[in-house]
Design brief:
The structure holds two protein chains of two kinds. Among the domains of chain A are: 49 residues, Uridine Diphospho-n-acetylenolpyruvylglucosamine Reductase, domain 2 (2-Layer Sandwich), CATH 3.30.43; 92 residues, Enolase-like, domain 1. Helix content of chain A is 31%, strand content 25%. Chain A is built from eleven helices and 14 strands. In chain A, the strands form four sheets. In chain A, strands 4-5-10-6-7 form a five-stranded antiparallel beta sheet. Chain A has a four-stranded antiparallel beta sheet with strand order 11-12-13-14, sandwiched between helices. The longest helix of chain A has 17 residues. Chain B has three domains: 197 residues, Aldehyde oxidase/xanthine dehydrogenase, a/b hammerhead (Aldehyde Oxidoreductase, domain 3, Alpha-Beta Complex), CATH 3.90.1170; 238 residues, 2-Layer Sandwich (Aldehyde Oxidoreductase, domain 4), CATH 3.30.365; 153 residues, Aldehyde Oxidoreductase, domain 4. Chain B contains 19 helices and 30 strands. In chain B, the strands form eight sheets. A seven-stranded mixed beta sheet of chain B has the order 3-5-1-12-9-10-11, sandwiched between helices. The chains are: A alpha+beta, B alpha+beta. At the A-B interface, helix 11 of A face helix 4 and helix 19 of B. The complex binds flavin-adenine dinucleotide (FAD). The site of flavin-adenine dinucleotide has 31 residues of chain A, from strand 2 and helix 7.
Chain lengths: 262, 792
């Protein structure tokens, strides 16, 4: 790791004030610290945002669940309020990495990083999340712009994420056998206005699988997916899974998700 | 108390320090004035080194020195060695490339060592390393095992990349068996390449005292004495008597820490050269790249069978990948540790094995938990299943028909097996696994839409590799005995020195149990010392499940010598004769009397040999003071553990995911000293074997880049992959050592891959290679469905 200046900010304004071209926000550090240790990234200033009160806390209203950006995966997994409103979010958070990762890693860090195999982005997309930042509000559909890329501008800080509460939803992850990130992860949400199905792990970035959505809109059951064929032409193919296999996993994971929707 | 120590589940005395974080590993050691080393490694699988430019890096802050291959040449540091000479079938010696600790003209795998930067801090070393400019001319890499012989030669003078073309067995007799066979069963197999993944990465620290000329190397070794010997005698870094190698707590090895590596040589040499301690700790990615890998065989096997199911012959052709260089035990692993065991525990009258060992531009391959025996077991157990299936026989019955039943048994290849009862453990395993109930469980799984399969693996392996005279006659560069010293202190407690090395095996407990049992001294009064060449006698280290059979026997013999001397001293003190003295439970007793001395009193007498006030302990004439005995034990034969494993899997047809739902095994390890430790060893071995069968694979792409160079891509088994293992034992004591023990450290890793694979193949009904990943299983099922549709 190359040396850097460490700052711990206590307010959003302090954090954004410290930000520069050569700085980065540090949240759980689960992604950032390894990449700094491997010298894939280095910064002049590292601004720790964990102590900013505004980035913590869980608020549940009749329509939405708002989670502070610095909320740890373990806190989401164990939250009784979230469990009542959107149980799938608890399941999702509870299956990220291992206990150590869940006790450090945060929602904000996860979506800012936008790893194409990460779990949270699928929830954001399927649950029409609104990303509250230090500057504005961004819809999930516009937030995830590409592999490890987001709509965040330099120095823009995620403050909280607001998820809309669906009628029911479920997340199923087929873990990569090595990393246990999603080789394929499918988030199915049944909203009043229609079904939204977000898929992670399968392409260069998170996306909505329209073929499944349409089938489930007509008939919200596992059976409805029996004859769906996923176009595998732009799916990822690597040593763990070919595009065809991923296509098949999308269907089997979606079926499981439908079966477990709550 | 005493006699109950053997077979007792004594809690591991070493665990307290490990689970409270008080272990002292090499990386925990910090020496005064220490510098830090960072190795520059080749990013290419095969390249010529045109120039190494260190000028900019030398000027970087904190840099003490930078050493390259040119320094190695200048200072006449010798290359790394392969310690076992194999002679090809045409009578020529194996061919080896030079293996300099820092490359100077050519690099031969990604991770090969090119230079070392030594600086005041690790960060400064790493910063400077980025300024070292190595100019490479990249060459085409040879990566694939099967096609290595037909690829461009990597080394001048090594035709077809062939290290040796070796054979074992009576070829003519085997041909004859095949000519007469009712049926010939064919099978092609891959034994996948594995990364050892010891929890503690390798590390070393060199320290040199210029005023006394003492050089010390702290290192993560399974084998400190051998490391000292090799670095002295072959690398020529420092003379053996002024060189101390310490292997403190070591966090797992699985074979990968048997050998001194280039880094050990360079760190020892660098410390001497700069006169300051030099510390190096391997990073995980570098472990993936540069620890010796395991296995990597491509094999074709044929089995000759009579129509009544009796196996009459076995013919095997194997290509073994050695990687970029010949590592220390790399040549014995796919030959003498492998081929003699291809016949398994079956009474096969004729067998022949040809092994071609090839060089490729991949990390060196060497012994890894099981070393040769897992490869042999995988092949014989897979082909036995294939044969039974082809002949429409029950796979369990087919095995039983062919078991060796009378002992001692001279196998057709090499081994003379002293003891065993294969029907006993197989029958017990079938019962433990409820083989009878399998059909119902299969139906239950089918009702849930899942495929269920059962697989057997019966194995025999050879442990306690021995005797020295035999192994040296077949090419070993070392004798394979073990040493022990049992040293009483005047106050009656004991320090036991062993030449074996514990890096997870629990020697401090098991070996103390032997001493407690032999000498009748409480465990708490016994301390086991190992891992320091300055403390105990020369030893051969720990690998090949040898420590208890060979090292434990040496301890037992040293204890016998203590008892002998004790009898002479006791006889003198009790006014009797040595042959009138019995020793039991720590007491020397004059036969048929109540006159006795405890062993503590005898020890005291040995250290205070005279009369002084209350103390009256004169030694008999001619007996030296002190109570300390050394023994070297060279076994008369290998020991032959065996066992039967039964695995049951359930497969999800939608995803191809295989779940091991039941695993039962019955092993014959001879006498058990500590069944709890044995169970732990079996658990660990099973985890690694199941890992090999279902998850692990070191995958190089066609350019020789290791794609699976981190845990993001190299799939390790995890606790939630396993069911509750059912483990039981049978016991036929070994006759080749005084303890009757056979060895248990590798059995799990040897037996389980075929048990799992046979179960998977049973479930899906088609052949599949290791690792049986979910995608491979899914593909196999899909292909089956497609061809069924076509047929219909
Ligand atoms: C072993 C392991 C297994 C894992 N498995 C999974 C898994 O199964 N599924 C999964 O989804 N993830 C997984 N992860 C990733 C994990 O969820 C991380 O926590 C997450 O990717 C990053 O979160 P963090 O809080 O640690 O962020 P950090 O590492 O601190 O930061 C990551 C990036 O986000 C930026 N950032 C952080 N906070 C903010 C903010 N508030 N506003 C703007 N930018 C910000 C940082 O500058 C940095 O660029 C795993 C990680 C590990 C180490």
């Amino acid at each position: 790791m190359k040396s850097f200046n460490y700052h711990s900010a206590s307010t959003v304004a302090e954090a954004t004030g410290l930000a520069s071209k050569a700085s980065a926000y540090l949240s759980g550090g689960m992604t950032m610290i390894p990449s700094m240790k491997m010298r894939l990234a280095s910064y002049k200033d590292v601004i720790d945002v964990k102590k900013i009160k505004q980035l913590h806390g869980i608020k549940v209203s009749s329509k939405s669940v708002t989670i502070g950006a610095a909320t740890k995966h373990a806190e989401v997994a164990q939250s009784k309020e979230i469990k009542k409103a959107i149980p799938a979010l608890c399941t999702l958070a509870g299956k990220i990495g291992d206990a150590q990762v869940r006790n450090r890693g945060t929602l904000g860090g996860s979506i800012a990083n936008n790893d194409p195999t990460a779990c949270y982005p699928s929830a954001c997309l399927a649950l029409n999340a609104i990303i509250h930042t230090s500057e504005r509000k961004i819809e999930a559909a516009k937030f995830f712009t590409g592999m490890f890329e987001t709509a965040l501008k330099k120095g823009e800080l995620i403050v909280a994420v607001e998820f809309s509460i669906p009628e029911k939803s479920s997340y199923v992850k087929f873990p990569n056998p090595a990393s246990r990130y999603a080789m394929v992860g499918v988030f199915v949400a049944k909203h009043k206005a229609g079904v939204q199905v977000a898929v992670t792990g399968a392409k260069a970035g998170i996306y909505r699988e329209k073929a499944i959505e349409q089938a489930l809109d007509k008939n919200f059951s596992e059976k409805a997916l029996d004859n769906i064929i996923i176009d595998s032409s732009d799916l990822n193919s690597d040593i763990h899974a070919s595009a065809d296999y991923r296509a098949s996993l999308i269907i089997s994971s979606a079926k499981q998700a439908v079966a477990h929707c709550k | 108390m005493a006699s109950s120590m053997i077979g007792s589940r004594v809690e591991r005395t070493e665990d307290k320090k490990f689970i409270t974080g008080k272990g002292r590993y090499t990386a925990d050691i910090t020496l005064h004035g220490q510098t830090y080393a960072f190795f520059i490694r080749s990013p290419h699988a095969r390249a010529k080194i045109k120039k190494v430019d260190i000028s900019k890096a030398l000027a970087a802050p904190g840099v003490v020195t930078i050493l390259t291959g040119q320094d190695i040449i200048k200072d006449k540091i010798g290359g790394l060695i392969a310690g076992w000479k194999i002679v090809s079938k045409d009578g020529t010696d194996m061919k080896l490339p030079a293996h300099p600790p820092l490359a100077h003209d050519q690099v031969n795998y990604v991770g090969d060592h090119v230079a070392v930067v030594i600086a005041e801090s690790l960060e400064e070393a790493r910063n400077a390393a980025e300024l070292v400019n190595v100019d490479y001319k990249v060459l085409t890499a040879v990566v694939n095992t099967a096609s290595a012989m037909t690829s461009e030669a990597i080394y001048e003078g090594i035709d077809k990349n062939l290290c040796f073309d070796w054979e074992l067995g009576d070829k003519a007799k085997t041909e004859e068996a095949f000519a007469k066979a009712d049926r010939i069963v064919h099978l092609k197999l891959n034994n996948n390449r594995l990364v050892p993944n010891a929890m503690e990465p390798r590390a070393s620290i060199g320290e040199y005292n210029s005023s006394t000329d003492d050089l010390t190397l702290y290192t993560t070794s399974q084998n400190p004495h051998l490391t000292r010997l090799v670095i002295s005698a072959f690398n020529g870094v420092h003379p053996e008597h002024k060189f101390r190698v310490v292997a403190p707590d070591v966090g797992g090895g699985f074979g990968s820490k048997i050998y001194p590596y280039a880094e050990d040589v360079v760190i020892a040499y660098a410390a001497k050269k700069i006169g300051r301690p030099v510390k190096w700790v391997c990073e995980r990615t570098d472990s993936f790249l540069s620890d010796c890998h395991g296995r990597d065989h491509v094999t074709e096997a044929e089995l000759a069978v009579r129509k009544d199911g009796i196996v009459t012959g076995l013919r095997v052709n194997t290509i073994a990948n050695l990687g970029g260089y010949g590592s220390l035990f790399a040549t014995v692993t796919p030959t003498y540790l492998y081929a003699p065991l291809i016949v398994g525990l079956y009474n096969i009258p004729a067998a022949y094995c040809n092994v071609k060992a090839v060089f490729t531009n991949t990390a060196p391959v060497d012994a890894y938990r099981g070393a040769g025996r897992p490869e042999a077991t995988y092949l014989i157990e897979r082909i036995m299943d294939q044969a039974a299936n082809e002949m429409g026989m029950d796979r369990a019955e087919f095995r039983k028909k062919n078991f060796i039943t009378a002992f001692p048994h001279q196998q057709c290849l090499v081994h003379n097996i002293d003891s065993g009862d294969y029907h006993a453990h197989f029958n017990k395993a079938l019962e433990l696994a409820d083989y009878k109930g399998f059909a119902k469980r299969k139906a239950d799984s089918a009702a849930k839409g899942k495929l269920r399969g059962i697989g057997f693996s019966t194995y025999i392996e050879a442990c306690g590799i021995a005797p020295s005279s035999v192994v040296m006659s077949i090419g070993a560069g070392v004798g394979l005995w073990e040493s022990a010293e049992v040293r009483f202190n005047a106050t009656g407690n004991i320090s036991v020195f062993t030449g074996a090395h514990s890096h997870g095996q629990g020697h401090a407990t098991t070996f103390a149990q032997i001493v407690a049992d032999k000498l009748g001294v409480p465990m708490a009064n016994i301390d086991l010392v190992h891992g320091d060449t300055d403390k105990g006698p020369f030893g051969m280290g720990t690998y090949g499940s040898r420590s208890l059979a060979v090292g434990g026997s040496a301890i037992s013999k040293a204890c016998d010598k203590i008892i002998d001397k004790g009898k002479r001293v006791a006889a003198h003190m009790l006014e009797s004769t040595p042959d009138e003295i019995d020793f039991k439970d720590g007491e020397f007793i004059v036969r048929n009397s109540n006159k006795k001395k405890t062993i503590g009193e005898i020890a005291f007498a040995c250290y205070l040999p005279g009369t002084y006030g209350e103390i009256k302990s004169p030694l008999p004439a001619g007996v030296e003071p002190g109570l300390k005995e050394t023994a070297f034990y060279d076994p008369i034969n290998f020991s032959f553990p065996s066992g039967s494993h039964v695995c049951e899997v359930e497969i999800d047809q939608d995803t191809g995911v295989t779940k091991v739902v039941k695993y039962s095994c019955v092993d014959d390890f001879g006498t058990l000293i500590n069944p709890m430790i044995v169970e732990g060893q079996v658990h660990g071995g099973l985890a690694q074997g199941i890992g090999q069968a279902l998850y692990e694979n070191a995958y190089y792409d066609e350019t020789g880049q290791l794609v699976t160079a981190s845990y993001m891509d190299y799939a390790m088994p995890r606790a939630d992959h396993f069911p509750e293992f059912k483990i039981e034992y049978t016991c036929t004591p070994a006759t080749s050592n005084p303890l009757g023990v056979k060895g248990c450290g590798e059995a799990g890793a040897i037996a389980s891959p075929p048990a799992v694979m046979n179960a998977v193949i049973d479930a899906i009904g088609t052949d599949i290679s290791m690792p049986a990943t979910s995608e491979k299983v899914w593909q196999a099922l899909r292909t089956k469905v497609k061809s069924a549709k076509k047929a219909a």
